[in-house]
Design a protein that fits this description.
Blueprint lengths: L2 H20 L4 H4 L3 H16 L21
Helix pairs in contact: 1-3
Length: 70
């Protein structure tokens, strides 16, 4: 796969995972669920990347930014 393609694939999977996780959450709860998002995202990424020999050991959501027009 190569480092560049792996980086793009990882970026895509993270974005897709975040969209999936926040789809059913109201905007008031987003800031409170960082650790839950990280745990769920880690499981999703482990599943998606293990076939490529990539092991995800931890995930941390460091910032949540909501759109100004919400």
């Amino acid at each position: 796969m190569g480092a560049e393609r792996l980086d793009k694939y990882l970026y895509f999977q993270i974005e897709e995972s975040l969209r999936t996780l926040v789809y059913g959450v109201t905007h008031e709860r987003v800031n409170d669920l960082k650790s839950e998002f990280a745990d769920e995202m880690m499981l999703i990424l482990q599943e998606k990347l293990s076939p490529y020999g990539v092991e995800i050991s931890s995930v941390k959501v460091t910032d949540v930014a909501l759109p100004e027009k919400l």
